[in-house]
Amino acid sequence: MPAGSDKKRERQYEHIKESQEEQGASKSRAKEIAARTVNKQRARSGESRTASKTSTRDRKSAYERGGEHSHKGAQGPTRDQLYAEARKKNIDGRSSMNKEQLRKALGR
């Protein structure tokens, strides 16, 4: 647990650590992720004495972004993600479409 933390941050740390372990991360990796996350939150809320630019630069937390940065790379969303979107829009023939065809049908 990062030094100088209050009870809220200790609970947050434990919750994140347990969650990471449930997802298959090793104990040391889970501790690292939890500590980094808590330290970043502390920096953003002004609870730490020093804060790096990267800790305070993002306007939104990962939770608030809600996957905005996901699949923005060269390949874009997966076929399954495109299929799910096509299903929501009730596009006919979607089950036999490949990724490129789904993209065109969705107007991407």
Keywords:
108 residues, mainly alpha, 6 helices, 56% helix, 0% strand
Q: How many strand segments?
A: 0
- Fraction of helical residues: 55-70%
Helices, by number, come to 6
Report Rg.
20 Å
Computed structural class: mainly alpha
Helix and strand element order: HHHHHH
Average pLDDT works out at 82
Sheet-strand content, in percent, reads under 5%
Low-confidence stretches: none
Count of individual domains: 2
User: Globular, elongated, flat, extended or rod-shaped: what is the shape?
Assistant: elongated
Biggest sheet details: none
Head-to-tail CA distance between termini: 45 Å
Per-chain topology:
Blueprint: H1 7-22, H2 27-44, H3 53-57, H4 62-65, H5 79-88, H6 99-106
Helix pairs in contact: 1-2, 5-6
